[in-house]
């Protein structure tokens, strides 16, 4: 039981240390962080769009191949 209490006390101590070291960002720091975050969001969104687009194109290609095979099979069967 003491082990958990000691771990909790250590966590509280480390948390206090971190809060003492932190400071409020300046306007320039805030703008830089906002720009970097926005660029990251755009990059991740663009990657998601590309993956979705590739998936759609691949799905259409597979559908076209299956359609051609079915039509060819139907024409062969009808002979």
Characterization of this structure:
The chain is mostly helical and 79 residues long. It has one domain (2-78). 91% of the residues lie in helices and 0% in strands. It is built from two helices and no strands. The chain is elongated and about 85 Å long.
Q: What is this structure, in a nutshell?
A:
By secondary structure, this protein is mainly alpha-helical. It has two helices and no strands. It has one domain.
What secondary-structure arrangement, pairings included, does this model have?
Layout: H1 2-21, H2 27-78
Q: What is the overall pLDDT average?
A: 89
Q: Report the β-strand fraction as a percent range.
A: under 5%
Total domain units: 1
Structure summary, number of beta strands = 0
Terminal CA distance reads: 83 Å
Q: What percent of residues adopt helix (DSSP H or I)?
A: over 70%
**Structural class based on helices, strands and sheet pairing:** mainly alpha
What features would you highlight for this structure?
single chain; 79 residues; mainly alpha; elongated
């Amino acid at each position: 039981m003491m082990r958990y209490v000691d771990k909790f006390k250590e966590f509280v101590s480390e948390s206090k240390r971190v809060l003492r070291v932190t400071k409020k960002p300046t306007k320039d720091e805030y703008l830089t962080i906002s720009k970097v975050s926005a660029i990251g969001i755009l990059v991740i969104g663009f990657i998601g769009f590309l993956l979705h687009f590739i998936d759609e194109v691949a799905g259409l290609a597979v559908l076209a191949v299956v359609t051609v095979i079915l039509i060819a099979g139907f024409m062969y069967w009808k002979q």
